[in-house]
Every structure is written in C-alpha cells, then in structure tokens.
Amino acid sequence: MQTVRKRPRSNHLDLAQRILEAVRRGGFRSGDRLPEQQIATLCSVSRTPVRAALQLLADQGVVHREKTSGFTLAVDPSGATGAVSELPPAEESRLAESILRDRAARRLDDTVTASALSRRYQTDKRTVLKSLKILEAENWIEKAPGQSWLFQAAQDGPEAAAESYDFRLMLEPAALTAPGFKADEAQATALRLGMEALLASPESGFDVREFQRLDMAFHAMIAQGAANRFVGQSLEDHLRLRRLPGMLHGVNVFRLKQSTREHLAILDQIEAGQFEAAADLMRLHLRLSRSQRPQAASRGAPVLPATAQAIRGRR
Length: 315
Fold this sequence. Notes:
The protein is mainly alpha-helical. It has 13 helices and five strands. The chain has helices spanning about 10-25, 35-45, 45-60, 90-105, 115-120, 125-135, 160-175, 185-200, 210-225, 230-240, 255-270, 275-290, 305-315, and strands at about 65, 70-75, 110-115, 140-145, 150. α7 (about 160-175) runs antiparallel to α12 and α9 packs antiparallel against α10 (about 230-240).
C-alpha cells in the first residue's frame, strides 16, 4: 500500500526558503556542513524547526543527510532558488489556492465566513482561518465586521486588466531607469536557466504553470531591484493581484514562448547595465502582452532580440 505523503507545515516551508537565502549570503558551497545550531542562529529560530526545514530540502536533493554527521549542502545554493516552490504545498496554502480559484470562477460571493468555507471544503476551521490569514497578508481579502471576510477587487475583467497594464507601464520601466536599480545576480541566473529550459520544451508539453512561476519571479526581481522603496513596494503589492488562477486563460503557447524570449532579452540588457534599453524593451513587452496579438511580432520571429540589437546600435 502506497504511503500518503504528509503535507509540510507552512512555517517549515518559509524557513526552508530562509535557510537557502542564509547559506547563499553566508558563502556556503556544495559539500559544506550545515550545523543545525549555526543555521538556527542565522535564521533566529530554535533547532527543532530547522531540522524539519532541512529535511524538506533533503527531500528535494538540495541538502544531504548523514546519520552520523548531520546535513551537508548538496548543490550550489544560488542554483536552488526554485527548490522550495517544488515542494508539496502546506494544507493551508493549498486551501488558499482553492479559495482563489473558486473566487476567480465566481463560485464564491464577495463576502464569506470561515464556517461556510469549512463546510464547503470539508476541512477544520483552524486550517480555514490560516488560509484566510494567508490571503489577507497578500491583500486578497480583509476582515469585515463580525465573522465575515470581504474579497478585494481583482483584475478579473478586461477593463481592470487594461488598467493593470497601464499601471505597470508607468512603474516597471521607471524602476529600471531610476538611479540605483540592482538585480539580484543569483536570482537572475536561476531565472535565465529556468526560462531557457522552458523554451527548449516542445509546444505540446509546454508547462503553463512553470511559465507563470517564472513570469511572476521575473517581474518580482524588477520590483525588488528598484532603489525607490515606494515604486518597489507598489509593484510587489500589485504583483500579488496577478496570482489569480486563470489569468492566462485564452493566451496561446506561442505568445507565452514569445513572452519568455522577451524576458530573456530584458535580462540581457539588465546584466549588461543597459537600463534604458531594458526599460524600452519592458515597454514593448508589456504592450505586446496587453494586446495579446502574437502575429504582430514579425510573423513569429522573436521580436525583442532584434530590437535590442537596434537599440544597442543607436548608443
């Protein structure tokens, strides 16, 4: 009989991500030991949750566990940034995704209660409340008077989607060109590897969920690299609204692959320090995404690499 794998707790998933960040900042290399007490000190937690988080990373092959010597780093930490996203989600995170999915499909009203959600999803009220807290932290829902929770307005219609693109056209190029922009090098490398692997996949096997993960991570990198804290925070807050399930409905694989090439072209300019060129390419990328008309892109030829070359030629 097959053993059902227990879902990890959300705090262990969060801590696993923090451990990856801590070992990357600390200059750890593949093969280095990861003493539980040292990791606990770096992450300001006790040893007990550290052991559970390290085991999650061991399940993903990021660290290696020896019975006698404990945990050692099995990979370069800069290349393991997506490892936690591949872990099975915590129960409350899975439920939060189900609530968002049903909200997007109009199966839930503007106002809900924890008791009603508990009955609907046949789960305990404690898990429901944790899920609602996750959604509240991401500005999807807010506590209303009494026992009710109120969903925030989302960009789930053509008018709202157009306003979203207008907002991003104002701020994302500005984030790139304002003095002090700096992209995280390890994150940029991991994104490039992920996007190149996605482009290498056949159209029939194109992973839309992986595209969405990389797309979100790419635009999050832009927001996090902004030197102006208000621009960066506004973009990060807005980015959460784009996580609504079904946002890519109706967009064909050709456009998603083209969008990935555009991301890579923008990344080329960022890594070269050509932020004005990166901003020009970002504007074109957002306008093409808004129109969702891939036929406008030179009959299927990747548009942005050529555009990038033309921009470089003018400088």
